[in-house]
């Protein structure tokens, strides 16, 4: 293993240790750890350019998330989600078990668009007030959202599948369709986890009897202001709903870049709901407190990724991971790829894995009679865990909107997410989609 590879793995380990042990915040660790390792490797003079390259790559995402938080913050203030929350409350009747399972189902439905950021924004915006009012453990909401999104991330338009299909010149019928039973099993696993966590929360909290007054109070808690009632715009409900539906439609159809869509949407939302300039400024000021921590972490992640790429640590890590596979294990390379996809997609970006490593694995597997499609399917198994990686920008949006600590969130969710990948792998193996 090369020095660059060793330092790359060590850097990721040090980073994970520092944030999980709460020695440093995720933001500071994302910046300071790679800088320290780059200096140790002799890249000191190039740190600035490498970091700036990384920042440029994440800037569009940061802009999108900033304005998405502002947009949904304004919609929450205006009361757009109050009817939905009240309906949910009526259906779940104060039962934490039903709330948690419902959250997982909602995340699954919203995840059909293949975009993690959209899933998190809609799921958290819709369910946060309900979870908070019932006193459900704060880590459960983001855990359900990210676990379900991890399964649906395998959709051809979700990103990873598109990457591997383009890298290997395959189509959806060869890669995605055979994995559908595994995705169904993964979804059932997420619902099982939701049920287990729901039972624990029901035992801890009991079933709360909610009358109409309490339901109204819970709907009001969706706003971050003490003067929530003054911010409600019930007469504009249908206008706001139509505007949000149009925004989501334009997002799915990719009519404009995501960041531009949310910038325009935020402008319209502010003007329509709060015509006075002073009210608009107050809304921006209020929700900027939610947006700023998320944006700073995304830019910090840009530095982390920029230095990993600029120093070629990512390339060295990829080559070293492939080289450790002994020739005797060649006939089982598809199974090895499936297991290896968990750390691969956690420590590396999807681009680095699917464009850098998977083609190498395919070439090696060909000599053992393993088809490119089988390797492609195996490489997607790790998506059940991938979204917990510190290199995934949308996860910072989820953490920020849910108001939880990144390290605590990883510790709480990681084993359950690994379980998702294992369940999908078992089904794929039993059906022969991935050979032993």
What does this protein structure show overall?
The chain has 436 residues and is mostly helical. The chain folds into two domains: 3-46 and 299-430; 57-292, no CATH class. Helix content is 76%, strand content 0%. The protein contains 22 helices and no strands. Helix 7 runs parallel beside helix 22. The longest helix is centred in the C-terminal third of the chain and has 34 residues, at 277-310.
Topology, number of strands: 0
Oligomer: single chain
- Rg for CA atoms: 22 Å
Number of separate structural domains? 2
Beta-strand share of residues: under 5%
Ends apart, CA distance between termini? 28 Å
Q: pLDDT average, as an integer? A: 83
Low-confidence stretches: 217-226
Tally of contiguous helical segments: 22
Shape: globular
The helix content is over 70%
Biggest beta-sheet profile: none
- Structural class computed from helices and strand pairing: mainly alpha
Spell the H/E element sequence. Answer: HHHHHHHHHHHHHHHHHHHHHH
